[in-house]
Amino acid sequence: MKIAICDDEKPFLDKLYQILQEIRMELNIPISIIKFIDGKELLNYFEVHKDIDVFILDILMNPINGYDVARKIRKMDNKVKLVFLTSIKNYAIAGYNIRLEKYILKPVSKKVMSKVILEIYNQLYRNGKFLIVKNVEGLFKLYFEDIYFIETEDKHVLIHTKDSSVKCYHCLKLLEDKLDTNFYRCHASFIVNLLHIDTYERLEIKLENNFHIPVSKHRKSGFTEKLLDFYARYME
Fold first, then answer.
1. Whether residue 211 sits in one domain with residue 197
2. pLDDT tens for each residue of 170-199
3. Are 79 and 128 in contact (CB under 8 A)?
4. Residue 8 contacts by C-beta under 8 Å, 6 or more apart in sequence?
5. Model confidence pLDDT, tens digit, residues 42-80
6. Same structural domain for residues 20 and 104?
7. Residue 210 C-beta-side C-alpha neighbours within 13 Å
8. Which residues belong to any copy of the HTH LytTR-type domain (predicted)?
9. pTM of this prediction?
């Protein structure tokens, strides 16, 4: 889990960084921390890399305040976790308009911050699984639940989500090994997310987005068994 902290007061920023490093050691969880002295620097970084899971932002910053930074982050990624830090309680109300994860008043105690970090880590670990893929345009963070299917096309792979398709040069087998049990390789050239299947008949899957993908004859038995087991879990 990668955490970005942003505050234009360097002494506080350095202190918060130290607190988070101590929390990382005490909780023994795999987190990394990157710090920024202003919101513009943070936004420029995230626009290119998109590899941050949690943002801890001070409200009263210049030249862009933390609330405006958070709104811009939300436009780029609707699922990252946002935490506000400030000494002014009135900002708490505004924070909930952008789906704020937590609101912490300064001065920050390690006990409070440790609880917040552990809660967010558990949320991401349980429900926030994702792939990071790379192509010539940059890095893309794709949540499992948003992926409908993956297919090979010529020498590359296309990952289809609800809103877009991302081309990458990973082999299908590598992606298959990284996905969870909600995915199944129904064809040599296709991996499907069982969550998004609408109907299945005559060796053809229809997805919720009306895409149709094939099931190969020699994978039919395994796929049918997998699909029935999947549905059984939700009927228990």
1. yes
2. 889 999 988 988 899 999 999 999 989 989
3. yes
4. 37, 38, 58, 61, 62
5. 999 999 998 899 999 999 899 999 989 999 999 999 889
6. yes
7. 1
8. 131-229
9. 0.55
